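Re-running the complex after MR caught last week's input typo. The corrected sequence lines follow. Everything else is unchanged.
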Amino acid sequence: MEVISKSLSNYDVITIVGRIDSYSAPSISNMLDSLIQKGHHNIVVDMQDVSYLSSSGILVFLETHRQLLRRGQGRLILTNLSSNIYSILEVAGLETVFNFCDDLQSAEGRFQI
Amino acid sequence: MDKVTRKFAGNYRNLALIGDFIIEITSNEGFSGKDVYAIQTAVDEACANIIDHAYQGENIGDIIITLVSFPKYIKIIIEDSGTPFDPDSVPAPDITSPLEIRKERGLGVFFIRKLMDEAIFDFSSPKGNTLTLIKNKRS
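Corrected-run output:
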């Protein structure tokens, strides 16, 4: 698994490549936590090259989403999900909880001034 | 493939190897991409639970996975030698309440039961836990 972080004008793009499972979820969690601690509250996670998402990865995104809700600012947007990954989120009843965008361009459009 | 068994050291890094193993076998057995992903998820969650709960840590013991192919279904047997894991002690996740009060614990066992046609958890001493999963082949 590889994570590439890019800070733009008023949002950050986290690109994840590979599997998000119990092995890789802690490092993704640390990266998202550190962004929020630094005051970066607008976060796009590009999942174009994510081949697998386990419950431990889902919990990381849920916790990030919750932290932003508690702070009352910013938003986490998940983009470019495969149909398999989206289906798993539907099974977990989370399709109405997360913010989704079909592609990176429309996700970034939500944050551009 | 009639029957294949593979042993993995119980650590998180090996979850990717286990995933590749499951994808390779189930794809060759004619499962759709969606079903392959579902089986991969159930096995991954089961193995993560073994490390978390049965072994309560990494590299404490092995995970033995056996796949047996039948004309209408595949049977996957996942064995560990850890402490008993009682799936009924894991509360079902709350997937309908508002996010702020929702508890997601138990999502792994929920996925295992939801995504497979059968999931039988068993424990016998001194052998350990045996999880038997069945996924039907769709014609």
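None of the earlier attempt is carried over here. Chain B has a mean pLDDT of 92. Chain B has one domain: 3-136.
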